[in-house]
Structure formats: structure tokens, C-alpha cells
Write a structure and sequence with these properties.
Rossmann fold, 13 helices, single chain, ThuA domain-containing protein, disordered N terminus, Immunoglobulin-like, 731 residues, alpha+beta, 6-stranded mixed beta sheet, Class_I_gatase-like
Length: 731
């Protein structure tokens, strides 16, 4: 009777056409959770072997399962547009399982259904299978036969980057080396290299995490035409004066004739270029090219270079760790409390937020302070009301905190900077930070506890913010970006850039409290870097009043003086004198004339110390005045001062010969203007067009005894060289 009942039940089920219940398929192999960003409603961890939901192994197994009232017979799998495949099920009672291996690089939607013995099919499900095993490919289409003319434009030989179809895309330069020396990934100017053999290596990465290094061996070649083009380029750039350029070009015209005349002309060209072209690659390229061409004319055989491209394995970008904050950290006797606050629902969600919060909690446990979390994506560990967790007085802004509350002026002042835009790069730069760029971080003030651990210059990979207003005008700048290391980068954009001054980290005393800003840290790798963890920790400790640091600014002193006038503790005459010195210091500071800024800061301090400041403002204003002096002294000690590297020398030449006077100078964007005083005059006169560090004077008897000097200027001021005389013999 029992068997009959079972049989009847089975027949009834088949007759009703009940389909199997299909489970959600899984994919293997499985790696540890990888963070691929978040929507505004949920975190999205991934266990694929690569980044951004890609597998970098060649085979991915689809693990299938379903249940049925009788038995699952098979699974029907359709990969992309391929024909459907029937996969027999392994039966275990009413449950059936199977595996199907997907191979080959692809980005496919896999459709699958379960089928029972009676042919009833379940509702279909789909899953995305993305496999990319091949790294991006670099090529140099502008390099013909492995040879590059010395005057070639950098853009004409920049490597192309492609990711083989159907790859993950996002091919980006992660590292670059010229002749084995690491360099920022910028287009290469052949003029910076000498004639002969060189190597150019680039490591590329894609969005899946694949990587490879491509090394080009090539040869720089030269000719009289190349040298002529280089001279014209340097004249156009203002590095060589027009008059000196004309002399050099005239010698190259003589060299076009060939033979002994060309040897003589190129020899003279090399000697003259060595005197009138600025020291460095410009001088080297012209002098050495001339010598190379002379050797060719004299029959010296220069060997050809074995050129070509080799490929070697390299790591692509790493998978971002998936960490979430835990419940509030509590210590028995905490030094202070911190609230880690995430942005509101509906706003752009920066991927670094959960990891940064978790790292902050690590720092808490090691340094005995409490931390609460308030983040709408972590409701289970967030405090109900963030305002109950704030003890006030300190604020730390990390990365996107400067991209918040754009309509609230007080907050923008508190943050010290307002985000305007940022550049972008290929997806192969860094997981969860496709807009990251490779650039140089410069620590401007290393006296702060938050920046002492940084070298003066550091390669970083991060999202580099540009500002709606210049933070330097308001705050105490700690770190800046060197835009020359990433503006025009290969495959990257920089957005609307800041120019010569690009602050990225700062601190300030603000409205009775303390504010510390680090606008980097979109990149999770920096969050895990001990230097940046120290940066965060010391910023938090200072903002909480646990440590002291010099965070004075001209803006703060301006407000202190104004407050003193308002409450009667600073008289009008004293305020005027203080304002004059402070404004002069500020103006010099903005153009990086730190010597001038320091002198005026000292004048401000002296006026405070000797003036009649009363009330509570006295000690604060005095302390801040002394801090201003120390800050300007720190900057002045590191600054490049306007001055001469060498002075012009008195020169004796024969009638009709050329005399060279040179006086190279150091400074910021130095401008030159040569002056002459004739033997029969007591007045100095500017020499038209002579605006480089060297001049050439063709000697005549009438010029004997004339004197020459140069005036150099930069944003910090001007200096004048000693004078040198021209002596003409053979009159």
C-alpha cells in the first residue's frame, strides 16, 4: 500500500507539470572578499580572483543546484550567444547538482535552468561571468625601425595602450622607467636623452588586475636638421635668446655645406652652445650632437643598436580589502572621543569610507580613545544620534569631506578648501579609484607631527583634487602637489589644475576650534600605508587638543587683530601697524618670497611684543605671532633664493671675435635683462632682446672698455650682477 501511495503521488506531480526550484548559482574559484565599491544602498563585495568582478584565471566553474518534487534530471546552460548545453544532474533525493566550466576570455551573461525527468523546466536565472587572463598591450607606432630623431615631439612616440578584446579595459601605465631609472609616466622628450641606445619600459595594468611590462630598446639619431630644430625650439621657449639663436643657426647653415667647412662650423657650434645654452639636457643635446656629427664627417663608424620590444611579467593592481567598521570602540579611561561620520544617502559614495573607519578604529584601540561610527550603510554599528557623540572643538576632514555642504560658507571655511574637480586615469591604476593619478607629494611643512614621517618628496597614487578657492589664502599649508609630475600624463587627465601652487593637506585654528584636512586618501592603499595612518592619527590627536602643533595662518591673525579692535584690547593705531606688517608678510608668502614674509612676520611679532595689547587677546596674539615667525622661518630655510650661480668675467678678445658674458642665476622663474655701459657713458642701458643668462658681443675697437651686467628678477624681487669689461686687442 505504501509503494502504491508513493507511485500515485509521483505520477500526480508529473502530471501537474511542477517545475524544479532553481537555486542561485555560484562561481569558483573563490578568493577572499574584494571591495568593488558601493551603491548608495549596499556594499558590493566580490570573491572573484581579479578586481572589479573579473576572474583572471582561465576557467570558471558554474556551480548549479535545484530541488524538485521527484528528481532533477539536468541543467540547461547557455553562455552568451552560444548554443545551449545540457548538463546531467547528480541526484541526491529530490536535489540535483551539477557543474559547468566556462573557459576563455569573455564578458558573458550565462543563462541557466533546471529540468526534471518529465521535461519540466524551471524559471531561468542569469549570472555574469567575466574572464580576462591577458594583460594590456603596449606599442610604439611612432618609432620607425627602432630609431627616434632627436628633435621628435614627445607626443609622436608615446606608447599606445590596448586591452585585448573582450578584456576588462582600462589599460593604464602603472610604472615607467627610462634607461632603468623610474620616472613619472609622462610623454618622453627625446631631447632629454643623448644620441645612442636607450630603453623605455612601461608596466601596464587593466581593470581586472592583469599586468605586464613592455620594454622598448631604441636609438636616438641626429642630423644637422635635428640640431636646427632643437635650437629653434629653445629659442621659442625663451631658453636661448634670439640673438644667440641666430648665431647658432648661422653656424648650422655653414655646416650644411659638408666637408671641412662643416667640421669647423660644427666645432664652433658646440663651443658656442656650451657657453650660451642653459646647463642641463638642452646644452648636452646640442654640444654632444655637434661632436657626434663631427665624428661622422671624420669617418667614425657609430654602431647600430639592436632594437625591439620585450615583454615580461608584472603585477597589476591588487584587490582592495573588504573591511567594515565594527561597533563603537570603548576604553576604560579614554583620552577623548571621536565620531567617524559618513556622508548622507543619495550622495556620491567614496569607496574608502568603510576601510578608513575600520583603520581609525584600529588606531583607537592602540591609542586609548573612543570612537563612534555614524554611517547609513553600517546601521548595525552606528550610533542612533551622532550629535550625542560630539564633544566639540576639533574637526578632521578626509578626502571627500571637502566636497560637502557647498552652500554653507562656515563649513567651507572650516574644511579650508572646497572641491571643484579632479582628473582621471585608466581603470588599471587602482581598484576603487579609477580617477587616481600618479603624482608627487611635496611636504612643505615637516615640523607638524602629522607630516614629520614623510620625506620631502614622495610618489603617490591618489585622486587629486582641484579647488574652488586657493586654500593657501586661508590656512596653514602642510603638503602640496607637484603638478608637473602628472599634468599631461600618459593616458591621464588632470582636470582644471591649480598651477604653480597646489595645496592638498593643511591645518588651521578656526573659530575657537581646530581643523585638520588631508584631501588625499581616496586610494585604499594609502589608508593602509603607515605614513598616512600616522598622518590621520596625529591629525586627530591635534584636533582633539591632545598635542600641540604650529597651525597658525595669516587669516587667523587677521581675525585676532579684528577681534581685538572690536573688544577694545587693540587700539586703532596698533591695529593699523599690525595690519600693515601682516599684509606685507601675507603678500610675500603668497608668491613664496619666504625671506620677505619672514622679515615682515618678525616686524609683526615685534609690534605685538612692544605694543599695548590688553585682555585675553594678549597671550593668544603673542603666541600666534611667534608661531608665524617660526612657520615663515621653516619655509625660508627650504626656499630657493634669487641669486647668481656665477658672475660675468672680464673678457679679452681680438678685433672681430666673439666675446661671451654669462651669469646664470637661481630662483623661481628667473627673468634676465642684460645692460651695457659704453666707454663714453656713465649710464647703464638695457640691451634689446638680450634676455637669457648669456650674451655674445662681437668685438670692435669702439667697444673696448665697455662694461656688461645683467639684472635678474623673479616674484621675490631682483638683483644685479657685477659688471665685466670687454677688452679688444689688435686694434
Amino acid at each position: 500500500m505504501t509503494n502504491d501511495f508513493t507511485l500515485v503521488t509521483g505520477l500526480a506531480a508529473a502530471e501537474t507539470g511542477a517545475a524544479p526550484v532553481l537555486d542561485v548559482a555560484t562561481l569558483s574559484p573563490v578568493a577572499g572578499p574584494n571591495y568593488n565599491g558601493a551603491t548608495n544602498t549596499a556594499y558590493t563585495p566580490s570573491t572573484t580572483t581579479g578586481t572589479n568582478g573579473w576572474f583572471t584565471n582561465g576557467e570558471v566553474t558554474l556551480n548549479l543546484s535545484a530541488t524538485d518534487d521527484e528528481a532533477v534530471a539536468s541543467f540547461r546552460v547557455t553562455v552568451g550567444t552560444d548554443a545551449a548545453v545540457e548538463v546531467p544532474a547528480v541526484r541526491n533525493g529530490t536535489r540535483g547538482t551539477a557543474t559547468y566550466v566556462v573557459t576563455g576570455d569573455r564578458n558573458s551573461t550565462v543563462r541557466y535552468v533546471a529540468v526534471d525527468a518529465a521535461g519540466n523546466a524551471s524559471a531561468a536565472r542569469t549570472i555574469s561571468v567575466r574572464i580576462d587572463t591577458r594583460p594590456p598591450v603596449a606599442a610604439w607606432p611612432g618609432v620607425s625601425g627602432g630609431k627616434v630623431p632627436h628633435s621628435a615631439a614627445a607626443s609622436s612616440i608615446t606608447p599606445t595602450r590596448t586591452d585585448p578584446t573582450p578584456g576588462s579595459g582600462g589599460a593604464a601605465v602603472r610604472d615607467m622607467w627610462i634607461d632603468g631609472k623610474w620616472t613619472y609616466p609622462l610623454p618622453l622628450d627625446p631631447a632629454t636623452l643623448s644620441v645612442g641606445a636607450h630603453t623605455w619600459a612601461v608596466t601596464l595594468g587593466d581593470s581586472a588586475g592583469n599586468g605586464a611590462t613592455y620594454t622598448l630598446t631604441f636609438q636616438i639619431t641626429t642630423s644637422v636638421a635635428d640640431v636646427r630644430a632643437l635650437v629653434q625650439r629653445y629659442v621659442a621657449a625663451g631658453k636661448v635668446s634670439a640673438s644667440n639663436g641666430d648665431r647658432l643657426l648661422a653656424l648650422l647653415t655653414q655646416a650644411d655645406a659638408g666637408g671641412d667647412a662643416a667640421v669647423a662650423a660644427l666645432t664652433r657650434f658646440g663651443a658656442l652652445a656650451g657657453q650660451v645654452v642653459p646647463e642641463g639636457h638642452m646644452r648636452d643635446s646640442l654640444v654632444k650632437d655637434a661632436a657626434y656629427l663631427v665624428e661622422e664627417l671624420q669617418g667614425v663608424q657609430h654602431p647600430d643598436v639592436a632594437t625591439g620590444v620585450t615583454v615580461s611579467a608584472a603585477r597589476g593592481m591588487e584587490r582592495a580589502p573588504f573591511r567594515l567598521p565594527t561597533e563603537s570602540v570603548r576604553n576604560e579611561k579614554p583620552k577623548f572621543r571621536v565620531l567617524a561620520f559618513g556622508n548622507k544617502p543619495g550622495a556620491f559614495r567614496h569607496e574608502h569610507i568603510p576601510l578608513t573607519m575600520a583603520v581609525l578604529q584600529d588606531l583607537v584601540r592602540a591609542n586609548n580613545f573612543d570612537v563612534d561610527v555614524y554611517d547609513y550603510l553600517s546601521p548595525g554599528v552606528s550610533v542612533p544620534n551622532p550629535f550625542e557623540s560630539i564633544n566639540g572643538g576639533g574637526f578632521v576632514a578626509l578626502h571627500g569631506a571637502t566636497d560637502s555642504m557647498h552652500q554653507w560658507d562656515w563649513y567651507k571655511g572650516l574644511a579650508g578648501g572646497e572641491f571643484d574637480n579632479h582628473g582621471s586615469n585608466g581603470g588599471g591604476i587602482q581598484n576603487t579609484c579609477g580617477a587616481c593619478n600618479i603624482g608627487e607629494l611635496v611636504t612643505e611643512d615637516g615640523t607638524n607631527p602629522a607630516t614629520r614621517q614623510f620625506p620631502e618628496k614622495l610618489k603617490i597614487v591618489d585622486e587629486l583634487y582641484n579647488w574652488a578657492f586657493l586654500p593657501r589664502e586661508k590656512v596653514h599649508v602642510l603638503q602640496t602637489l607637484n603638478e608637473a609630475t602628472y599634468v599631461g600624463g600618459i593616458g591621464a587627465s588632470a582636470g582644471r589644475v591649480e598651477g604653480a601652487d597646489h595645496p592638498i593637506s593643511w591645518c588651521q585654528n578656526y573659530d575657537g576650534g581646530r581643523s585638520f584636512t588631508q584631501a588625499l586618501l581616496h586610494n585604499w592603499a594609502n589608508t593602509l600605508d603607515p605614513m598616512f595612518q600616522k598622518n590621520m592619527l596625529e591629525g586627530v590627536k591635534w584636533a582633539a587638543g591632545q598635542t600641540e602643533a604650529n597651525c597658525v595662518s595669516h587669516e587667523e591673525l587677521r581675525k585676532l587683530v579684528a577681534a581685538g579692535v572690536a573688544d577694545g584690547s587693540v587700539g586703532a593705531d596698533l591695529a593699523a601697524r599690525l595690519g600693515q606688517a601682516l599684509t606685507a608678510s601675507y603678500d610675500a608668502y603668497l608668491v613664496k618670497d619666504y625671506a620677505g614674509a619672514l622679515a615682515q612676520a618678525k616686524a609683526f611679532r615685534q609690534t605685538v611684543d612692544s605694543g599695548h595689547v590688553g585682555g585675553r587677546a594678549q597671550s593668544t596674539l603673542r603666541d600666534r605671532a611667534h608661531e608665524l615667525v617660526e612657520w615663515m622661518k621653516t619655509l625660508d630655510d627650504k626656499s630657493v633664493r634669487l641669486g647668481f650661480v656665477s658672475q660675468p668675467k672680464t673678457t679679452a678678445v681680438g678685433n672681430g671675435e666673439d666675446a661671451v658674458f654669462a651669469a646664470p642665476a637661481e630662483g623661481r622663474n628667473v627673468a634676465y635683462q642684460w645692460q651695457v655701459k659704453s666707454p663714453r657713458s656713465s649710464e647703464w642701458a638695457d640691451m634689446a632682446g638680450e634676455t637669457s643668462f648669456a650674451i655674445v658681443v662681437t668685438a670692435t675697437p669702439e667697444l673696448s672698455g665697455s662694461e656688461y651686467r645683467v639684472r635678474v628678477t623673479d616674484p621675490t624681487g631682483e638683483v644685479v650682477s657685477r659688471s665685466a669689461s670687454l677688452k679688444v686687442s689688435g686694434r
